[in-house]
Each structure stands twice: as C-alpha cells, then as structure tokens.
UniProtKB/TrEMBL annotation:
It comes from Flavobacterium caeni. The keyword Transmembrane applies. This is Uncharacterized protein. The keyword Transmembrane helix applies. Keywords: Membrane, Transmembrane, Transmembrane helix. It comes from the Bacteria.
Length: 204
C-alpha cells in the first residue's frame, strides 16, 4: 500500500463516520424554496399591515391583522416543511441513505425542542397583545433550533442559525421593523445558505 492508498482509506473511514453521526441529505434547494415562500409571506403580511395600521408601531397598535398574519406564517411553514421533506427524501434515495434513521431522529428532536418552545412563547405574546416581540422571539428561537440541531447535520446549518439569532436580536432593538427582519431571517438567509449548500453538496 502506498501513501495515496492510506489517505484514501482514511478519507473513506472519515466519510463513513460522518454518515453514521450526521444526516447529510438535507436539500439545499429546499432551503432556497423555503426562503422564497418566506419572502412571499412577508410581502403579503406587510401589505396587510400597511392597509390596516397607520404607522410603524403596527405591532402594538392593532390586533386586527393578527389572525391573517398567523395564517400566512403557518402556510409558509407547512409549504417549507413539505418541500424540505420531499426534496430531502429524493436526495437521500439518490445517495442510498435512509431518511428516517437514528441520526435523523436526533436531528429532528434537537431541532424541535427550541422551535416548539419559541412557538409557544410567541403564542403567549400574541395572546397578551405584545405583537412587537413576536418577530424577535421567533427569529431567535428558530436560530437556536438550527444551532442545536447542527451537530447532527451539515455545518452550514450552524452558521445559518447564528445569523438568524443575530437578526432576532436586532429585531428586538428595532421592533417597528418586525416583518422586514422576518423577511431577512426566514427569506434572504434561507436563500443564501440554501444556495451555498446546493453548490457545495447537491450538485455532486
């Protein structure tokens, strides 16, 4: 065996270890589509608020558009989840990997814990009329969910999560721009990181 053979064996062993400890079949293109859905949702939400609220203090001025905004957000979420599942399923099949295995289960559990906690807190804030805090809370907890789950998948997910957390903190400081920060966090960030993941992993 020459040195190249040893290096190849080491690389193969490393890839096998990564496959056993990380779910690497996440589709970057599904992230791009999720970002597009989010931008459309943010546009629709902003349009609702523009017609119903007299100023940029819309988050605290009126609860009238709340149900419509929640419905739009849920629609974006459902579309994103379905798209991610379908595209990840087909990518996993091409790679000969199971979608539902011990690693993907750990990924989902670690992702859902912060996400569900943030969703419940957002509902409490809506109930109490604290609309200005919904955007920061959802961004921060979504970012934490990505960071928390990133050890079971591609490293790029960690950087996505950290970026969204920073945007959530900025949204907490500029609460009159919640929809704009939503568009940046859930829209632009997903498109950027989804594109990076697509060109790094999906095209091979």
């Amino acid at each position: 065996m020459n040195q190249n053979d040893y290096l190849k064996d080491i690389s193969d062993i490393k890839n096998m270890m990564n496959r056993s400890s990380q779910f690497i079949s996440l589709s970057g293109l599904s992230g791009v589509l999720a970002g597009i859905y989010a931008l459309i949702g943010a546009y629709l939400g902003r349009d609702l608020l523009r017609h119903r609220a007299p100023s940029r203090e819309y988050e605290t001025a009126s609860a009238d558009p709340t149900l419509s905004i929640v419905a739009i957000a849920l629609g974006v979420l459902v579309l994103s989840v379905v798209t991610a599942f379908v595209m990840t399923y087909f990518k996993a099949r091409r790679q000969g990997e199971k979608v539902w295995n011990s690693t993907s289960k750990r990924l989902i559990v670690n992702f859902l814990i912060p996400l569900i906690a943030g969703g419940i807190l957002a509902l409490i804030l809506l109930r109490d009329g604290m609309f200005a805090w919904v955007a920061p809370v959802t961004l921060i907890f979504y970012g934490l969910a990505c960071v928390h789950a990133s050890k079971y998948t591609l490293r790029d997910v960690r950087y996505l999560g950290l970026t969204v957390v920073v945007l959530g903190l900025l949204a907490a400081s500029y609460r009159g721009y919640g929809v704009e920060f939503w568009a940046l966090g859930f829209g632009v960030c997903h498109i950027v990181y989804g594109s990076i993941m697509y060109f790094k992993y999906d095209r091979n």
